[in-house]
Amino acid sequence: MKPPILTTCGFGNPRFVAGFQRLESEWFPDNPTGVAGCPWPEDLLEGVPTDHYRFKPKLLAETAQRYPGHIVCWVDSSIRIDYARLPVIWEIIGQRGALLFGDPDHVQGRWASDESLYLLGVTRDEMMNVQALSACVVGVDTARPECRRFLTLWAALADQRLTFAGPHSNLAAQLQCRARGVPYDPRNAGECGPEECWGHRHDQTVAGILQYVLELPTTQWVENGVQLLAYPPKTGIFTNKG
After folding, report:
1. Which domain does 74 fall in, by range?
2. Which helix (H) or strand (E) segment is 92 a member of?
3. Which ranges of the chain have pLDDT less than 70?
């Protein structure tokens, strides 16, 4: 098997920049982690759209083009990696073709604008029965055509912007979100659907709907007793420290 490639970027927020620098240092050639990385520093982001997290599919697709036939895996700069256990991840991607983590607490219909649902050809009722996607880590086997198609479509939709754009929080759901303890950001709120819609999740929304349409498998945060993805205080092979 060709060596898997990890990729990330970090810009703007000092926290993201610090996380990027940490990951970049862990991926230097001959590094003790033993991984191959393709980090994207800010000076290489010219021409890459940075609003609404559109950079993520664009940079993952560019990495896939640079490393055809490899497994490529995006990690947000907030992710801490247990490198010794990464072979478990590579095995999952090798078997399934993609690493697409389902969110155990949310469904896709709660986190998609009316416009994105319409443009992607699905309904909110349909998406209320589909587990939402956590896109802080996304891996694909570029040797598999269905995974290349997913990545190609995700990046193309990022170029078009329409399905990625939208308010992070939905004004119509303000009272419902606060009553249920759902995060609500008044600084990035707007109208994006009925009160059943709590907001729009940009890259995650589009990737999750594409996963559903293309019938790609979902990976859970915990499988066979192994914590693959976690948020503190838990730890996993990937731990998102936010």
Report:
1. 5-104+133-159+217-240
2. helix 86-96
3. none
Q: Cα(170)–Cα(191) distance, rounded to whole angstroms? A: 5
For tokens 């247990």, the residue is 82
What is residue 242's predicted lDDT score, i.e. its pLDDT?
82
CATH code of the domain covering residue 27:
3.90.550.10
Q: In angstroms, rounded to a whole number, what is the distance separating the alpha carbons of residues 218 and 212?
A: 9
- The reported pTM is 0.94
Query: Residues with Cβ < 8 Å from 242, sequence gap 6 or more?
Result: 78, 231
The overall longest dimension of the chain from CA atoms, in Å, is 53
- What distance in Å separates the CA atoms of residue 58 and residue 75, rounded to the nearest whole number? 13
Q: What is the DSSP string of 124-161?
A: HHHHTTSEEEEEEEEEEETTSHHHHHHHHHHHHHHHH-
Residue given tokens 């993805």 in the structure block? 229
- What is the predicted pLDDT for the residue at 139? 98
What is the DSSP-derived secondary structure letter of residue 237? S
Whether 73 maps to a domain, the answer reads yes
Mean residue pLDDT of the chain comes to 95
